[in-house]
Amino acid sequence: MSQNIIVTGGTKGIGKEIIRRFAREGFSIFTCSRSEEDLKLLAEEIRSDFPEVRIHTKVADLSKKEEVIAFSQAVKAVFIPDVLVNNTGVFLPGAIHDEPDGNLELMMQTNLYSAYYLLRAFAQEMIARKSGHVFSIGSIAGLTAYANGGSYAISKWAMLGMTKCLRQELMPFGIKVTSVLPGATFTASWEGVDIPEERFMKATDVAESVWSAYNLSAHSVVEEIVIRPQLGDL
């Protein structure tokens, strides 16, 4: 039977590499982005590299509740996911005491609420089916306080807390829940910084870790994946 995965924010970085990793295993894919052009390029790449894989896309700004709901409805018209990867996120640096007004609201809406609404959209179907795996792509910023983390760190601490609660709630129904907490990963978020590429983790390593956690037997679950650059945090 064909298996299905949702990856939000799947056109770049970690999200894109997760899509590619699961596409290698024949999963059908549904993803979203705010950029129609980026989605088109991703779909062309996946169809070229994995001709047997079905990929579905939808333009959506998941900082807006109504667009999260519209995205979930579009997915439901095609499939109920076996795997849900809440990857959408935005990072705006700043200190809590003087960052621009609106930073907290935007990052909570994008990084936390989108995952909350999307999980709720599919939870009952997963519970009825008694299977599924939910991955929350968080950050080391959700474990370690650091200057200039500001509201981003707040949103990632909240994401980790929500995921821990989900683990307890969904445990009796055979649904696995995993927090993924990567350190500095070489993605578009770091473009323009004067740091050697080899100092960063590879997005493919994060994707491989997600696949490995998914690939365990029904008897085991990886609750948290903490991945850091070999030479430590940046």
Automatic annotation (TrEMBL):
Gene3D superfamilies: NAD(P)-binding Rossmann-like Domain. CDD domains: SDR_c (cd05233). Keywords: Oxidoreductase. The keyword Oxidoreductase applies. InterPro entries: NAD(P)-bd_dom_sf, Sc_DH/Rdtase_CS, SDR_fam. GO terms for molecular function: oxidoreductase activity. Belongs to the short-chain dehydrogenases/reductases (SDR) family. This is Oxidoreductase. It comes from Echinicola pacifica.
